[in-house]
Amino acid sequence: MNKEALNHNRINELRLNNNKTQKDIADYLGLTEQAIAYYEKGKRTPKPETWQALADFFGVSVPYLQGAYSKDELLLRLQKYYSKYADDNFDITIDTLRNLVYFDIGEVVDEFVISKRLKPWNIKKEAPLLTKEEVADFNYWKKNFNVLFDHAATNWLITKPTLEATEKDIIGALVDALSGEGDNVVLTKRINFLNKHLYYKSRYPIKTFYDFNHPHPLDGKEYYLEDGKPYFIGDNNQRHYIEETE
Predict the structure, then answer these.
(1) Which of 68, 79, 201, 224 is the most exposed place for a label (fewest CB within 10 A)?
(2) What is the model's pTM?
């Protein structure tokens, strides 16, 4: 559902999705059809007990009925954003606002799966870390990412229907919640692992790549690779080849 297009609540949306008439709801609640019409248009606010009766009728929570997001809606957003990042045609060098959003989401999701040991910190892949099957499987997201809703950043989206969240708000909440689950010890191992396999193609302009078959020392030098042999450039532009390290 487009949250920004939501005027008042979900009564009308849920009624239509469930093939119910205003009379069906009115009969269930013991109210008039006009009252239901007023509720749907936001011209009249139901009493707390009426909200609960309506929620029971549709089998949803009161906050959701009033306009808050459901957990599934937010997880679907997260899945959608990450799927863009994981797309084979995704190119972060195309500097658009949307691409930056997908990249931010992609990075924090990858950090999350490393932190939660869903993927090993020394997985020989830069990104994305989820397989195409995992990305496409909504049950995977429900099983592993529900912890996000323990955070205040996302909790308000599912409990506070009066707060109109923009797309930017949703993205920010998801990024904050994912970042809050980071394990610094594991992520440091991950960063060091990546840095041991980072090589330069050129220095000006900077172009780099990862080669996970040829590690080099973590000594602050900029390493290059020639015929599978790591080297750095020292004084007088001399190449210094080194033994590979694990």
Answers:
(1) 201
(2) 0.79
